[in-house]
């Protein structure tokens, strides 16, 4: 009984995280330079109820019986693929493309921007 409840609850928690990430992607879809994220899931544990049986004379073996004990979030990955070029009509804007990161410095605070090549 508790095993089935734990599986359901862990699935709901992982699904809530996926909905949070999807909501963030949707709310920022029109933001210039936004990079979408994706949730990666993994099994937590599984319990073996019956081990595999060896083949006998004239009869094949038997498969093991396993019960999953839930799911968890393995990580949240960011899509760093090149986005589409977008005209902003501002002289101070630039497009960043290519491999690597572009470092900006404002007031002594540094930030990294994902990029491949810088086009000025």
TrEMBL record:
It comes from the Bacteria. Transmembrane segments: none annotated. The keyword Membrane does not apply. It holds the Pfam family Flg_bb_rod. Keywords: Bacterial flagellum. Residues 8-35 form the Flagellar basal body rod protein N-terminal domain. Its main location: other. It is found in: Bacterial flagellum basal body. Signal peptide: none annotated. A flexible structure which links the flagellar filament to the drive apparatus in the basal body. Belongs to the flagella basal body rod proteins family. This is Flagellar hook protein FlgE.
């Amino acid at each position: 009984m508790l095993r089935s409840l734990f599986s359901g609850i862990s699935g709901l928690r992982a699904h809530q995280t996926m909905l949070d990430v999807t909501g963030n992607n949707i709310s920022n879809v029109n933001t210039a330079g936004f990079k979408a994220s994706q949730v990666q899931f993994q099994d937590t544990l599984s319990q073996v109820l019956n081990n595999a049986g060896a083949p006998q004379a004239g009869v094949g073996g038997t498969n093991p019986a396993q019960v999953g004990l839930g799911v968890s979030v393995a990580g949240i990955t960011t899509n760093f693929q090149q986005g589409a070029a977008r005209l902003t009509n501002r002289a101070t804007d630039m497009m960043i493309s290519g491999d690597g990161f572009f470092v900006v410095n404002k007031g002594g605070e540094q930030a990294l921007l994902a990029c491949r090549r810088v086009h000025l």
